[in-house]
Structures
1.
Amino acid sequence: MSFIWNWVSSTISGLLGYLGLGGKSAKILFLGLDNAGKTTLMHMLRDDRVVQHTPTQFPTSEELQLAGINFKAFDLGGHKIARRVWKDYYAQVDAIVYLVDAVDRDRFPESKQELDSLLSDDNLATVPFLVLGNKIDVPTAASEEELRQWLGLSYTTGKGKVALSGSKIRPLELFMCSVLKRQGYGEAFRWMSQYIK
Ligand SMILES: Nc1nc2c(ncn2[C@@H]2O[C@H](COP(=O)(O)OP(=O)(O)OP(=O)(O)O)[C@@H](O)[C@H]2O)c(=O)[nH]1
Ligand SMILES: [Mg+2]
């Protein structure tokens, strides 16, 4: 009896796979300057704990379950040389999570420059962008308003549930967070998941 059941369930899962359902996993990229907190976030989402990381030299990927969606998340290094390979990952991407260190004001212009070049890249024209202002546990961190000014994000598409399908408007929003304190990014990923097909 059990072998029949095994056969039935493997046939069903094979069929779901064939239809692109079941094991569907959206592809997201974690981008942002070095030291922004990408690897810390990725490991917090995976293991729910903070681990101290050395700067990322080579891209890594993890399967994550977030807001009810399976994600394949790619953590790419943020230092200048590592940024050169970002474009190799743009194909078939479902969303971009762009991290900014909200404490490091000296690097806001550099972070804006990288963000602008991503936002204006034709290959990413329709891809939803979640921008995370990280490290708000540090007292000197910029406020959301201040970071919006610096990054030129005064006009974004809105938090919460905002229907944009059919409008040709790319979802773009800024959320403040502290990966260290587990604050802010839950709401941000729920916002993002509504735009993943
Ligand atoms: N205070 C504070 N520090 C954080 C937070 N998130 C990450 N950090 C620290 O920021 C530093 C850089 O974090 P990483 O995750 O290695 O940064 P990254 O973006 O992966 O950097 P690269 O791999 O070099 O591109 C580490 O010392 C982290 O502990 C946070 O929410 N608050
Ligand atoms: Mg890293």
2.
Amino acid sequence: MSFETISKRGLVILGCGRMGGAILQGLLSGGLPAHSVHVIDPHPSDWLKSTNVQLNGTLPDSPAVVLVAVKPQMMADALPQLEAMAKGDTLFLTVAAGITMAGYERMLGDQTRLVRAMPNTPAAIGRGVTAIVGNPNATPEDLETADALMQGVGQVVRLEAEDQMDAVIGVSGSGPAYVFHLIEAMAAAGEAEGLSADLALQLAKATVGGAGQLAEDSPETPATLRENVTSPGGTTAAALEVLMDPETGLRPLMRRAVAANIARNRELGK
Ligand SMILES: NC(=O)C1=CN([C@@H]2O[C@H](COP(=O)(O)OP(=O)(O)OC[C@H]3O[C@@H](n4cnc5c(N)ncnc54)[C@H](O)[C@@H]3O)[C@@H](O)[C@H]2O)C=CC1
Ligand SMILES: O=C(O)[C@@H]1CCC=N1
């Protein structure tokens, strides 16, 4: 399905907060005409009001795509109003955590053409990474459409099975929050060692941003890049001894954090 078909038949966005807004921004700057977008959101942001999208108005009967971007807790209230569209020729593309294909099929009917997508907030600057997977009703063309829409905000990867989605949410969907916390923790350590708050934050942000870019761009593995910083017997080695402790280091801590994420995701799906 081309952008032309989407602009002709319309795109409905259910919930246009941080994530829906980031995706919409990517699509509008990619050339999707604003008048072809219909947003349902009881609390539209000022930015959303400043676009020329159709806000809380009449919806097309059979839009090309419905993008679902409400919180999982709102889903049961918000989604059933669109049930008729799921009986027709509309693709449902959802970015919500927690809710499984089976959950959507219970709300919309088991004929629904559905793609689950898990983006992350660097989408707001076109640097997101989104994993997608379709239900058995989703055609290869539907997956192409979802892929093309989500490429508006960064890279897209395809999953082999829905059960990989939990780990994706645990790693990349929520992952930016872990990285932001790493920035906070590095800055706090710098401050505790006598740097001003501003300087410590500038150093931490630039280090995480630069190292992230280097890890993405370099042909070397992260392990080699780490070793390149580490002189034998030097200062980095002393810090890594703490961070790489098999019992108390970052690896077991991250393992626990991702497991907690997945457990919560499964609770939300109930
Ligand atoms: N923020 C993130 O990092 C990511 C979020 N997601 C998923 O995106 C979805 C949205 O999350 P955010 O954008 O962060 O939340 P948000 O709170 O920024 O946006 C949700 C929007 O839904 C609107 N809304 C509330 N009730 C509604 C209703 N009955 N009908 C229509 N709209 C309604 C709210 O006014 C708000 O604008 C969630 O399901 C979340 O799991 C997925 C990946 C990453
Ligand atoms: O915290 C959440 O539930 C959502 C899902 C991925 C990122 N934020």
3.
Amino acid sequence: MAQFPEIQGGGSLIVAWQIRDKHVLVVGGGEVAAGRIVLTLNADARVTVVCPASGLNEEVAYRVAEKQVKHIDRNFEPSDLDGADMVLCAIDDPVASTQVWKLCKERRIPANIADVPPECDFYFGSMHRDGPLQIMVSTNGNGPKLASLVRKRIAEALPSNIGAAIENVGKLRMKLRKVAPEPSVGPKRMKWMSAVCESWSLDDLVGMTENDMDGLLTHFQAGDVPPLLEVRMKNL
Ligand SMILES: C[C@@]1(CC(=O)O)C2=NC(=C\c3[nH]c(c(CCC(=O)O)c3CC(=O)O)Cc3[nH]c(c(CC(=O)O)c3CCC(=O)O)/C=C3\N/C(=C\2)[C@@H](CCC(=O)O)[C@]3(C)CC(=O)O)/[C@H]1CCC(=O)O
Ligand SMILES: NC(=O)c1ccc[n+]([C@@H]2O[C@H](COP(=O)([O-])OP(=O)(O)OC[C@H]3O[C@@H](n4cnc5c(N)ncnc54)[C@H](O)[C@@H]3O)[C@@H](O)[C@H]2O)c1
């Protein structure tokens, strides 16, 4: 009998949400807001912060001064939601934050009200970032502190050069698409890239130069993956 995955309801759909150039409204300018701002700027969003200047903490004030974010110097007003693609609320006023949530739902804008799970379309998680690598740990509302501890354990277990290796693999994949752009070779491309990732060590992938990549790519037609040293010998 075929074995299919058992359904375990009660989880979240964890996705890598693309918010480049989307308008994110951050309500509040304290410590939690500062963290939300870093995460959304790192995802290339356009961020607006609404919060009285007197309430901005040092980090948020710095982002405003550096013009990394737009700033509206007052308390939240409903018109702030005009044009917002996402709202992140982190204020110390539960009545006002529930109002933000209700307005977001009327307008169908995805929102996170920090620390109020019933008023969240999505939760944040504990995040590890190393170049193009991102790992998010969620305990689905059960234990945020534990999420942070698990994330640290995972990060410690990773090789220190994994981010650099992934960056180089990204470059190699781009080059491969130029060498073999036809959609019909898609399956062959994927099989060959998987073979490269499996047979080369992380150190090989990190140390791979543009020359090495070009040398390796000459093997794509035949479909073999020689060791790095062999690619280098041929390049000499
Ligand atoms: C992961 C992280 C990401 C982030 O926010 O950046 C995050 N909380 C973090 C820290 C943290 N938060 C709290 C503590 C105190 C210790 C403790 O209570 O454990 C600590 C520990 C600390 O500060 O170190 C208190 C707390 N948090 C929530 C409630 C309400 C409730 O549970 O009902 C209460 C109780 C308030 C009270 O008791 O009054 C709710 C949420 N917090 C979430 C995310 C979402 C679920 C994520 C998940 O389950 O995995 C969710 C549902 C909604 C959301 O906010 O998105 C970040 C760690 C970042 C990092 O260090 O890596
Ligand atoms: N998820 C987490 O990790 C976590 C951790 C600690 C606290 N929290 C929660 O997140 C919220 C914010 O925490 P914080 O530590 O950043 O608080 P904080 O007190 O440092 O900041 C609150 C900010 O909200 C601003 N503010 C208040 N009312 C406002 C309004 N109507 N419009 C615009 N700005 C307004 C204040 O000026 C201030 O800048 C709290 O509800 C707290 O319970 C979450």
